[in-house]
Amino acid sequence: MERSAIYHRPASEMACMADNNHYQLQLKTKHRDITRVRVIFGAPQMLLANSGKESEWEYETLEMNKRLQNGTYDVWSVILPIPKSRKLKYAFHLLDREGNELLYDANLMQVYTPKAVKEITGFLTPYLVLDESLAAPKWSKSMIWYRIMPDRFSNGDQRQDPKDLLEWGQPAEKAKFFGGDLQGILDNLEYIQNMGFNGIYLTPVFDAYSNHKFDTIDYYEIDPAFGTKEKFKELIEAIHQRGMKIMLDITCDHLNDFSLQWQDVRKYGVRSTFAKWFLVNEFPVRYLPSESPNYSERLTYEALNNNPHMPKVNLDNPEVQAYFGDILTYWTRNFGIDGWSIADSNEMSVAFKRYLNETLKAINPEIYLLGNTIAKKAEHDNVFAGNNSIDVRELVERTFIERSVPPTELAYALNEHQLRAKISELSASLLAADSPQTKRILAKSSNNLPLLRAILTFMFMQSESPSILYGTEKGLADGDEPALQPCMSWKDNKRSDEMQRFIKTLVATRHKYNRVLSEGTFEWGQCSNKHSYLSFSRKLGSTRIFALFNLGYGSIKIVLPPKCKLLLGQNLVEGDSRLGQYGFAIVEL
């Protein structure tokens, strides 16, 4: 028994409340070293009256199940009932292949005996109270999001078009508009729902100068190029009537340099009413321009990514907190927003994120807050309901496209990613194949549609809620930053028809097997670096799904169980029982 590989961290993602009446534990051990784990648990002993002695510990045992497996370690998991005392004492009873038994608690690892169990210190929890402000709404775990940049999706009302529009379908230009608007989204809700998506995720819709609107000027106004507040409310009501959800992008860690607050600071300096709203190192505020208009190495104030046009705000300032709290409150209460994607959430203090959570949950207990950042951050912040799993997307790209991360390393890295998050938080997070901030994944894949389909299928088999950027189902490949994203192609051809049929089937499969994919165990099967293939299985109750992906240049021999049901497949040669390049087989066992 490899004692150094046995690991549990109390009061963390390895020991946390699953809901108000249950507590979840996880334990990490060396792969295939331990054959069985039981958790021993109960309420801590009470002091006997007038004796100074503790009562005898009354405990129960439950079997732990393997939640994650790879070639390095296993992760065991169990959910315990919380006693009436709202406190838990627990320890782990491990059995290895040679029949050795070990008792593991907070103080030591020792040989298991019934006497040792009665005398252990155990891992002890504090009084267990669920923080409702941190709980993810149940609906968030069954979502498949369709992300839209309004200017690039559909022009439904030409009366509000900006001047000098580009012709729809032309290559995008940074300072140009295509005229997409809220009416265009409203006109195509049936199309989106028929594809199977049950959530619409919009990039910023507030008044701004750019075509992508990430540089918000006025958070209380809908950008005139998109429509009016009345049209926005009509859109949201139509989305809700279809049983769908709406999530908006918003930035809270900086303001645009054209904002009234920043302009006041520029004019009045330290005497400005808003001087303490920003992170100013020296007055007057100024910066040294560079070749790029959106970058400066020398500024007298803090700015997002050294962009002088995005001065960072002081989120520890109560006035700033109230400002953004009021904004989100306004749109949530008056327009029925279901979720908010908070940009650059890693730049924010835990106190501010808790403030937003508590403020919005008071209005709508079922509100969904998603932490969204382009920064590499493996740890989840445990404040918002979920996080945008950008690190997973990058790992998948490096394995499937760049081939710089071997399949076995991908397996290890994804297990680490899952282990660092609470299970409830992982299933409420989001995994997007494409993002407006980056080059489209089809372009990264050298316009290889079979490779794109393999990547999308792999991502849809993970625990997080999938997200598709508009036009992925049409085979759009242009655009490597928000201002240069292409407009939606509404003309169908053989290529787009093929992709739409695939996406529709993929989305339907995810919906049907969502519980096993979002909540089930994850066991890696055979993975070969030499032949570039990987496999895994997902299981929940009696439902089990097996997935095999071939990333190599040649075909591989496969043998599927005789009574399995093929759910999704590509480049599968049934007669020869082989799987071609970029082929995959997803089966229910």
Looking at this protein, list some descriptive labels.
single chain; 589 residues; Immunoglobulin-like; TIM Barrel; Oligo-1,6-glucosidase, domain 2; 4 domains; eight-stranded parallel beta sheet; 25% strand; globular
Description:
This protein has 589 residues and is of the alpha/beta class. It has 4 domains: 3-130, Immunoglobulins (Immunoglobulin-like); 145-253 and 339-519, TIM Barrel; 254-314, Oligo-1,6-glucosidase, Domain 2 (Oligo-1,6-glucosidase, domain 2, Alpha-Beta Complex); 521-588, Immunoglobulin-like (Sandwich), CATH 2.60.40.1180. Helices cover 25% and strands 25% of the residues. The chain has 15 helices and 26 strands. Strands 1, 2, 5, 6, 21, 22, 23, 24, 25 and 26 form a 10-stranded mixed β-sheet that branches. It has an 8-stranded parallel β-sheet with strand order 18-17-16-15-12-11-20-19. Helix 9 (390-400) crosses helix 13 (449-460) and helix 13 packs parallel to helix 14. The chain is globular, with a radius of gyration of 26 Å. Residues 375-379 have low confidence and may be disordered. InterPro entries: GH, GH13_cat_dom, Glyco_hydro_13_lg-like_dom, Ig-like_fold, Ig_E-set, O16G_dom_2.
